[in-house]
């Protein structure tokens, strides 16, 4: 019996010691694995990041100017929003709006990044298109933190500006005010705005297949928008995946549904008793309808002075949408190449830039800095010449593409008749003195 007991104890001790050795060996293996696959985190903040307040762009440049050139410091717009032509006062105003949303609490381990620096990083990214990898070195902020800052701040910008500067007309009175401004400024009656659309390119989203794959063999989301007389976006439909056929984009858009179901009732054209519907103007890529006016095709203009007059009058206002999109893409150079964001974040970026655009176009000082007169198309009615805005010199980029043809060669007879009525009006009661010079044809 005693022999059995000693044998049992010896066996138990053997397996116990072996298990201990295996456990130790497995633990050593785990230590080696984690050491080889995961970097050591000896400090909470990397040393080069910890020197942000002494050597980072936001703090260091401002400090130098404050000490060496106080006058320049007081009027100097941050490099991150110089490209937007935004004044220091407007930066401070925007900062006061977004600070309550983007402010973060300090912790025992580290001090939070200030709202001013968060806004600076974001505006620099939007205005210059500078990559997050480059921003982390300039501002001495980790890339993952940079990414979170940009995502949070663009949402905050849209949130604080949308109600005042990206609010769409919702009543008949507001739409009539828009139409009146268009008529007084651009001589186009019964008009609710100028329409255009663009593909905004993005990197291929993970596991999206061909959902965002567009006709140019790239990946994109679509912005369809209406612009008012002041080059502000007053109706937007953003986020449609680039795979949708371009005609389908218009047919399925909220904009088309709104125009057809909530359009203003017909009203007389100025100085006449001709009852005419309120319309949106677009280029030949859209379908002519009762509420969408497009130019006559080039093939139908031969020896037709009246149609050339109509096309001039329509394109005169339609250039507002071209200029609005052109200024947007020129000032916000993040759109000069494909955005490296998933579709939801890319949509947030577009919404933030639209809100900023409208805000800057609404403020008198901001408008003159953000989009000075020479940046926009203009007319010399004496010589009959159209002068291109300088945004056209810098507009071409790889980040934005125009929509393909939305319409077709066949239009409803009622829509064709309405266009002819407006054409006759522009060549009669509704004529403007300089229109003949602008088409290069002597007045009859």
TrEMBL record:
Matching Pfam families: DDE_Tnp_4
Keyword entries, A-Z: Hydrolase, Metal-binding, Nuclease, Nucleus
GO molecular function: hydrolase activity; metal ion binding; nuclease activity
Span of domain DDE Tnp4: 195-358
One cellular-component annotation, GO: nucleus
Required cofactor names: a divalent metal cation
Location of this chain's protein in the cell: Nucleus
Similarity remark: Belongs to the HARBI1 family.
PANTHER family in UniProt: NUCLEASE HARBI1-LIKE PROTEIN, PTHR22930
Protein name: Protein ALP1-like
Species name: Frankliniella fusca
